Amino acid sequence: MRREGCMLAAVYRKEARGLRLEDLPEPLPGPGQMKISVRYASICGSDLFLVRSGQLADGTVLGHEMSGVVDTLGDGVRGFLPGQPVIVRPVGCGSCAACASAQENLCPQRLAIGLGALKGAFAEYLVVPQEMAIPVPEGLDLKLACLAEPLATALHAIRLAGIGSNDRVVVLGAGGIGLCSVALLKALGVRWILVSEPQEGRRNRAMALGAQRGVDPMAEDLGKAVEEWKGKEGVTAVMECAGNSETTKLALQMVAPGGKVALVGLVKGTVDWAPALTMLKQIRIQGSFANTQAECRECLGMMARGELNVEPMLEGVIPFQELPACMDRLLHAPGEGKLIVEVSFG
Fold first, then answer.
1. pLDDT tens, position by position, 74-87
2. Residue-wise over 71-110: b if at least 16 C-beta within 10 A, else e?
3. H-assigned helices in 113-258
4. Is 295 within 8 Å of 152 (Cβ atoms)?
5. Side-chain half-sphere of 99: how many Cα atoms within 13 Å?
6. Positions of the chain with pLDDT lower than 70, given as ranges
7. At the top level of CATH, which class does the domain 153-287 belong to?
8. Which CATH number among 3.30.2350.10, 3.90.180.10, 3.40.50.300, 3.40.50.720 corresponds to the domain 6-147+310-342?
9. Whole-angstrom Cα distance, residue 158 to residue 44?
10. What is the pLDDT of residues 201-222, one digit of tens each?
C-alpha cells in the first residue's frame, strides 16, 4: 500500500547490483523549478553500462530519456502550464566557453537527470530547473517524444562529422544509438546505408528504418560485403556505434581516403591503431558526446512533422513494475530495439 506523500521509484541498490522498486518522498518544486509527472522513460545503453560498472552511488534513480507532463510550477516559473507535455534535457552553466559557443553538452558544470545529482525518470515524479524542460510539439505521442534524446545524440554525431546526403555510410552496431543513427541518416536524405550487426532482430529493425544492406559480421565476410556494396565512391563515412575497440579499428581501415569516422559508441579501454594510416588516408576522426537542447528540439519537430520514422526501432512498452526485472534481463541478454517504460498513466 502506497504511503501518503510518497512516489514509486526504481532505485539502484549496490547490494542487489540492480534496481528495486521503493517508495520515496514525492518531491516538491522550489523557486524556478517544476515538478513533472513522468509518462514514459526509455532504457538507454548507458543505464546498463552504469549498473554494470558498480560505480553508481547507492540510492541513485536512473533514467534520462523521458517524456511527461508538467504537474506543479514553482514560484517564478514562466512559459509553462500544468498539464503541458515536456521532455527534460541537461543544461550548462550558461557562462563558460562551452556554453557561450552553444556546446552546453561540454560544459564542466552540466546538470543532468539520472546521473546522481538529480533523480532520474525511473520514478513517478521528478523536479528540475525550468531551463531543463523542453515543450513537446502538439500532436506528438509522448511515447515517441522520450526518444528525442538518443535521436539528438545521433544527429549531433552526424552533424559534427559532416556526413551528408551524398555519403555512403557504414553504421557499425545497431543498438539504440545505431538504430537512431540509421533513422536520422534516412531522414536527412542519405541513400546509401550499410549496417553491420550480429543480432538478427536489430538488423531487421535497421533495414526497416532505411538501411539498404544489413550484414551479420559473425556469419558473413564484412570486408567482402562492403567491397561489393561501396561502389566507385567507396565508404565515405563510418559511424562507430558499437562501442568496441575492434570495430573502431575496423572503421579506420574501411573508410575511403578523405572519409569521416564518427565515434559515437562508448569504447572501454584503449584502441591499438596506426596514426600513419589516418594521416596517409587523410581521415577525419570525430568524437561525439551527447547532444544539445537545440538538437533535441529539432528531433521533436522532425517527429511531429512526420519527417523522422522511429516506430521500427521500438521493441515494446513495459509497465513500470516490470522495470527492475527487465533491467536484470538486459544486463545478460541485450534487447533488439528500444524498450520504453510506461511510468504513469496520468
1. 999 999 999 999 99
2. bbbbeebeeeeeebbbbbbbbbeeebebbeeeebbebeeb
3. 142-145, 148-161, 176-187, 200-209, 222-229, 245-254
4. yes
5. 12
6. 1-2, 116, 345-346
7. alpha beta
8. 3.90.180.10
9. 19
10. 999 999 999 999 999 999 999 9
